[in-house]
Amino acid sequence: MQDVIAALTWIKQNIAHFGGDPGNVTVFGHSAGAYSTFGLLGASSADNLYRRLAGFSGGPARIVPAWWAEELAHRFVTELDVADNPDKLIDLDPASLVAALRTVCPTDLGVRGGVDNQATGVVLDAGQPGAAVHAHPKDVLASGSHRDIDVLLSMASDDMDWWVTNDLARFDPHTVDRITDEVAGWRIPRSRAKKLVEAYDQDGRTPAEVRAAVMADYLFGLPAARGALAHAAAAGTAHLLTIGPAEGAPAVHGTEMYALVGQEQPDRSPDQAERDTRIRDIVLDFATGEQTRLWPAVTDQPTAESVGNPPFEGTAPLLAGLDAVRHRACAARRRGDPSAP
Description:
Blueprint: H1 2-14, E1 26-30, H2 32-39, E2 52-56, E3 63-65, H3 66-79, H4 94-104, H5 109-112, E4 122-124, H6 137-143, E5 150-156, H7 161-166, H8 168-171, H9 176-184, H10 190-200, H11 207-233, E6 238-243, H12 257-260, H13 270-287, E7 304-307, H14 316-335
Parallel strand pairs: 1-2, 2-5, 3-4, 5-6, 6-7
Helix pairs in contact: 3-4, 6-11, 9-10, 11-14
């Protein structure tokens, strides 16, 4: 976060010399880049350094508490046997660092990015030396303090299917019952968790595909919808986008990367070319403030635009995810759970 803020500070001070407008800066990112982008909302030192924020498969979520970040760091240096002198880290080879990280962190992304968020996201480090992020970005959106910042939040319709295709051995739960166990572990009542999973267990999906569909909405769709609704309720402008598949380009994590950087995937189909050109133009229209070229902003419902050929109407999974989290919130509040959303 400090590196991003330093870069934005340089832009603020120097971009006019290159013909740019320091008051019209857009920051956007994908996946980890999207979480960092929206992490800027919680960093007061980044205020007035940007005008618009866009996140693709990531947004105002995945915040790691400082206590867990410190504990994870302790386990990491202990595994490497340098806890007494962390400066020795600089002399270790990268392979040993990766191996140690895999030992102390879950390797299944579903576990790493679950409700307790064990190893994915931006650290809420208020009160720590050199702290950058002082508040949860969704809370900042809800407060209205950044209502003048436009936001765009996006997900791919089959975001988590990347892990089904590329990391099945670790990702596969093998049975649907295990998915219900996992969702119930998110502090959702088991009866509700069972109904939630059943809603995704359709169309001949394998257990891995069911888990991927649940996780896609939980990790990406739900935070996007909640963030957009919070910003809209505080009189901010928010747009939601769902990216569907195109011929030769399934809508998995990263499907839009060529479009986001204005490039063309080699040997792409005409269908993908049309989809990716539309994504590119959306980013450009958003960054230049051409609101009339975009679809209507979110009001009190998470209405979303769709590109490509998503298997559902753009808003449907967002509404389902919000319904699930409302049930979790009610149950948690009845128990006095401080983690209740």
